[in-house]
Amino acid sequence: MFIYIAGSGAMGCRFGYQLFKAGNKVVLLDKWEDHIKAIKEKGLTIVGDKEDNVKIPIMHPEEAKEPADLIILFTKAMQLPAMLQDIEQVIGENTKVLCLLNGLGHEDVIKQYIPEKNILMGVTVWTAGLQGPGVAILKATGSVNLQSIDPAGEAEAEKIVEVLNEAGLNVTYDKDVVPSIWRKACVNGTMNSTCALEDCTIGEFFASEDALKVVHTIIHEFVEVGRATGVKLDEEAITEYIMHTAEVAAEHYPSMHQDLVQNHRQTEIDYINGAVARKGDELGVPTPYCHMITELIHAKEHVLGIR
């Protein structure tokens, strides 16, 4: 299968690497010049649970020409419209587009560029990091849940699932992926912003009773807003899932920490805690913690001169 990875940071490199090693034709798309140069000159280097180096193609999105069978979206949420515009020339009549972005609300953006019959929405709990340009840190395991937003597309989506599973990505076709997307957003809402603000790993943050009070309040706000939009969410089950995830990923710096603290890049806060705060305002659901966290992240972005 011919696959573009649209947004080839840490997670894009993980998926691109595993799909490439499984025998697919994979092209990485990105705009980070040092990253592109490193991979073109030295290949993509893998460290972590295993060490490897692969000569995988990488280019700017607008340089891609050949229509794809599948495009996996891993760009930052605020860059999604620009990415979809930059790759419009490789989106064929039957090109499937799988969105695995963090956060909420991406489906509405994608529908402006892609027919519903070709859109797959998904969520993943795989993790990854970048040691530097062209060097991906791959540790531990993960999984993916995905769904065709057009029920008639389930059979085609199952073929995508098979390809991804051949690459060891542990994918399940989910007949209702929306609760899983909200659950993952809640994971990000309790870990990404908090660890970025506190400059710590997930395990360090979750180690104190004070922090756990914050975590439980954020979970409650996400669940109340999700329910108000019609999504079926189990607060107790989500809490158990988040606590388990915090144990498994205790040594991990989440992606917002990597963006804000390590690399001084703008964050996706508006699509995580910020999205819940805005939706809460629309629906009359109080979300004081999500509002405060969003404002604190924006304030830090201003301090760093990246907003």
TrEMBL record:
One GO molecular function term of this record is: 2-dehydropantoate 2-reductase activity
Keywords from the named record: NADP, Oxidoreductase, Pantothenate biosynthesis
**Which residues are in the Ketopantoate reductase N-terminal domain?**
3-149
* Keyword Oxidoreductase belongs to the record: yes
Catalysed reactions listed for this entry: (R)-pantoate + NADP(+) = 2-dehydropantoate + NADPH + H(+)
Question: What does this chain do?
Answer: Catalyzes the NADPH-dependent reduction of ketopantoate into pantoic acid.
The protein's name: 2-dehydropantoate 2-reductase
What organism does the record attribute this protein to? Lactobacillus gigeriorum DSM 23908 = CRBIP 24.85
